Amino acid sequence: MNQLVNLRCVILRGAFPGERVFQIVQSDGETYEGTAPEHYFRKLDGGRLSTSEPKPEGKLNGVISVVRLRESGDDVRVALPDNEAISVSSSVIASQLTENELVPV
Question: Which residues of the chain are modeled with pLDDT < 50?
Fold first, then answer.
């Protein structure tokens, strides 16, 4: 079932210019926080982030490209760009990626 999907997340600035911090609510209600290169992220409208987004100390609701590994009921296991795997609710998945949206994973 390995399939690329967009997962809803909160995006923050990272420590380095091309890096972003992301926060995702897991299926157990805990928030997972990780980092990934900025090209894994999109705004909710599908647009790419600019190099100045989000503003320093700011947050932005958006999506991150991840790999859907497996699904069991409402629970979906995904592989993140930071090489971690977490479980999320299927309601957190925003969309399946199309070919022109693919990013290296």
Answer: 100-102, 104-105
